[in-house]
């Protein structure tokens, strides 16, 4: 995101005065100084004040998904998915498809942008959008309660180590009646996540080993692209 005149948007916490700038000196008031109402380029405080304002703005926009769907006061959950639950298509009592699709769209956005820890659960739930049931909705509630417990988690990056690390795994038909496996990968750099994915494989694997090899190929493609991108960034 590019912010126009970034450092001019910060709010000052103390009174700061400056000499009248050249070309704007008021006649017969040359000895007077100007009081700054806003942050200004060149101030030592400018980066800090902008960071604080931007941070407060983002935080004020957060947590809306929990409030929108009335889960802000729900009982927190420790994990986004219960590994003992297996989901099936076309079973159980149906729930409102429009409402299901709406909440899944919101969760998909969160999972794709800042929360890799819910990517698997959300990707699994997206497979049942055509005919959602009460069982699927219960899993959605579990994800929402997990977000309630972990609402202050975020992605953080350090200066070092500037080394790309990647991990991948495959799930060969463990938690769903779908015959296709699920592949997942995650890549870190400088201590923070930069890329992740959890998706159903388009190829039908005949064994756990085959699903692992296919998932490795998918992750290798992403790793190759990331390495190419990083090689073009000046150091």
TrEMBL record:
Signal peptide: none annotated. Pfam families: RVT_2 (PF07727). Residues 1-64 form the Reverse transcriptase Ty1/copia-type domain. CDD domains: RNase_HI_RT_Ty1. SUPFAM superfamilies: DNA/RNA polymerases. InterPro entries: DNA/RNA_pol_sf (IPR043502), RVT_2 (IPR013103). It comes from the Eukaryota. Transmembrane segments: none annotated. This is Retrotransposon protein, putative, Ty1-copia subclass. It comes from Cucumis melo var. makuwa.
């Amino acid at each position: 995101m590019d912010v126009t005149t970034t450092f001019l948007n910060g709010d000052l916490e103390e009174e700061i005065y400056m000499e009248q700038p050249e070309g704007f000196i008021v006649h017969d008031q040359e000895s007077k100084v100007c009081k700054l109402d806003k942050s200004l380029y060149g101030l030592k405080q400018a980066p800090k004040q902008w960071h604080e304002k931007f941070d407060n703005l983002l935080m004020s926009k957060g947590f809306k998904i929990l409030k929108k769907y009335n889960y802000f006061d729900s009982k927190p959950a420790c994990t986004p998915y219960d590994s003992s639950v297996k989901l099936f298509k076309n079973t159980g009592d149906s729930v409102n498809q429009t409402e299901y699709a709406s909440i899944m769209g919101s969760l998909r956005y969160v999972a794709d942008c800042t929360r890799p820890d819910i990517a698997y659960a959300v990707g699994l739930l997206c497979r049942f959008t055509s005919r959602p049931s009460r069982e699927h909705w219960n899993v959605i509630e579990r994800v929402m309660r997990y977000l309630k417990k972990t609402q202050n988690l975020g992605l953080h990056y350090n200066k070092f180590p500037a080394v790309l690390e990647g991990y991948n795994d495959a799930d060969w038909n463990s938690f769903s009646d779908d015959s296709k496996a699920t592949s997942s990968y995650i890549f870190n750099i400088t201590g923070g996540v930069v890329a992740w994915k959890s998706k159903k494989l388009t190829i039908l694997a005949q064994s756990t080993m085959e699903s692992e090899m296919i998932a490795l190929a998918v992750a290798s493609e992403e790793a190759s692209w990331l390495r190419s991108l990083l090689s073009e960034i000046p150091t």
